[in-house]
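Hi P.,

Sorry for the delay on this. The queue was packed all week, but I finally got your sequence through. Input first:
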Amino acid sequence: MTEDTHTILRDKTGPQKMMGYVISFEKKTKITSCWLDIEPKHLNLHGVLHGGIISTLLDSVSGYAASHVYDETGQTPFLSITINTQFISSANKGRVTAIATITGSGRKLNFVDAVLKDDKGTTLATSMGVFKPVG
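Then the structure:
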């Protein structure tokens, strides 16, 4: 991956620094993804990836995807208006990757679906969210 084909966000936000996830925007295909290499600090009491971390990954990838609708650089700040998350399966090791898809957009709102999968392709969670540009 080169900077002229991808935008990579690493350690830009508090949650990124705390959890260690990375967000990528592929300029040609306009695919927004987010990945996290699971560590023991990401696991809940049952030894699987914590639901709050799953929700954070889906929210982050969706918001960043929404920002590219208004601004090619992805610098337009967005607020999550609502996000519904469906937890489907669990993981406790390896890499998980979220991919967001814009399903609709208007002047004031963007609608985004996202899916989180493990490195074997198993769907762990999905989300549907509404995002609003601010500023």
